[in-house]
Design a protein that fits this description.
heterotrimer, A mainly alpha, B mainly alpha, C alpha+beta, B: mainly alpha, C: OB fold (Dihydrolipoamide Acetyltransferase, E2P), 5-stranded mixed β-barrel, 4 helices, 30% strand
């Protein structure tokens, strides 16, 4: 058997290191675009002639909006992989679902926090109880926190995976509600409607938002890759421990002559 | 620049949390990797620990 | 039926990590129930536009509700019941209502920017009404104490997006 400590062991690979470096370069580019090259959101009101808009607070949207979209991607992947697990019952699907849900929950938390920080100067409130977009996003976050906690309760990995898959498929029902809430409750909710859906964005502002999507997709991919490998290693470490324990028992049995006796009877 | 405190707060929280999470994932991976044979780490190549 | 008195192995204690996870699940469930209760139990959840609030004034007169509209040019800073207040006229779809907002207005509050106010109808006229050029002056005003700015979703350049701003045809 290979000695597990024969080389420096990490979850990195040439591909993940290249992705990591590209992601860091992308983050620097995004910061330059968001803070240096783009203009603040200011317009002149046609009737009052006064300056209105979000001013520099708009620079938080280059962070908040891409992370919200990545949260959709992560939770959709978690639900898709959960369905895959329930059909195929192989660990690959479960490890993928767990990794996507964990990384997605980090992003969802940041969506809530950055949205709150943006809302204070622009809306005049850190949080608005009753806003449908905010409430459905909070519910989505709480359900996936519950999903992650549930994964730690069952001793049998198959029971754990099955329960978690069902919870992920229930939780994902909230996702269309989060996404469509601003359209369905238009004029009844504080959160603004989709800007991209109505193409009310252009030029460098649009370009910066697109770069934000790409960069945070790279951040998500890097984290997902490493988190998947951690999940895979957890399985492999468990199997390795069991194999080592069996080998040890066999060695003990060989020493006491029990193995030969067992071999004769089987 | 207007709203500088909010901008630093928002981008700062994201930078800190993503960094802390990324480091924790890499550390968990390293701790687990030493207990798993190389043939179970399909992505493994000979590497320097500071490469990540 | 006889009781089994055979010595049994003690039941293994649940590891602390699993106990912690069960506690998290209980907390999450409690939080979900609380969020739903707060949301569904909030009587002020529904937004009325100014024209709807004026039309339904007799039904709303004893209730606290949210109303969305656009403040018109001309703000009067005054005091109401000993508290600092800003008085202005509010509009939606060409219908006007006078407002006395008590407390600090939002940082980005200004005429022409839609806001959501929370408060109730009061009979009479707010102080400083004479200073408003477009006052509804219909014997009622909205006394509000919670203001959030309803920002739009438009990030285009000036020429295109200013055309979409509604100010009920009132100019500064």
């Amino acid at each position: 058997m290979t000695n597990p400590t024969s080389s420096v062991a990490t979850t990195g690979s040439p591909g993940s290191r290249a992705l990591g470096l590209a992601t860091l370069a992308g983050l620097v580019g995004l910061l330059v675009l968001a803070f240096v090259l783009t203009e603040p959101d200011v317009r002149i009101h046609p009737s009052t002639g006064q300056e209105i808009g979000q001013f520099d607070a708009v620079r938080l949207l280059y962070l908040h909006v891409p992370m919200a979209v990545i949260t959709y991607v992560a939770y959709s992947l978690a639900a898709f992989a959960s369905a895959g697990y329930l059909i195929k019952r192989t660990p690959w699907w479960d490890v993928t679902a767990h990794a996507a849900a964990e990384v997605g929950t980090v992003f969802c938390f940041l969506v809530l926090v950055t949205g709150s920080i943006w809302g204070r100067p622009v809306w005049n409130t850190w949080w608005e109880w009753g806003d449908v977009r905010l409430m459905t996003t909070l519910i989505l976050f709480l359900m996936f926190v519950g999903y992650l906690a549930l994964r730690r309760t069952a001793a049998d990995p198959r029971v754990q995976a099955r329960r978690a898959a069902v919870v992920a498929l229930v939780a994902i029902v909230d996702l269309p509600l989060v996404n469509r809430s601003v359209e369905w409750w238009e004029n009844r909710t504080l959160h603004q409607k989709s800007t991209l859906g109505e193409l009310k964005i252009e030029d460098l502002t649009l370009f910066t938002l697109m770069v934000g999507f790409l960069v945070f997709l790279m951040v998500f991919s890097w984290l997902l890759l490493h988190r998947f490998r951690v999940g895979w290693l957890t399985l492999a470490a468990g199997e390795h421990q069991v194999a080592a324990a069996i080998k040890e028992r066999r060695a003990e049995a060989d020493g006491s002559g029990v193995a030969s006796a067992v071999g004769e009877t089987s | 620049m207007t709203h500088l405190g909010y901008l630093l707060g928002g981008w700062g929280v994201a930078a800190v949390l993503l960094t802390v999470y990324a480091v924790s994932v890499v550390r968990r991976g390293r701790a687990l990797s030493v207990s798993v044979p190389e043939d179970k780490r399909r992505w493994l190549t000979s590497q320097n620990p500071t490469d990540d | 039926m006889t009781e089994d008195l055979t010595p049994q192995p003690s039941r293994p204690e649940r590891p602390p990590r699993r106990r912690g996870s069960v506690a998290v699940i209980v907390l999450v469930l409690a939080a979900l129930v609380a969020v739903l209760a707060v949301t569904l139990g909030d009587a002020t959840l529904v937004f009325y536009e100014v024209d709807e609030a004026v039309e339904q004034r007799t039904e709303l007169v004893s209730s606290r509700f949210r109303v969305v509209g656009t403040p018109l040019p001309g703000l009067v800073e005054t005091r109401l019941d000993g508290e600092a207040a800003v008085v202005f006229t509010f509009c939606a779809s060409g219908v006007f209502a006078d407002v006395a907002h008590v407390g600090d207005p939002a940082e980005l509050f200004q005429p022409g920017v839609p806001v959501v106010l929370q408060g109730s109808w009061q009979a009479g006229s707010p102080p400083g009404l004479a200073g408003l050029s477009t006052a509804a002056n219909d014997g009622w005003f909205l006394r509000t104490d919670h203001m959030v700015v309803k920002h739009d979703n438009d990030y285009r350049t000036d020429e295109e997006r200013t055309a979409d701003i509604d100010a009920c045809g009132v100019t500064g």
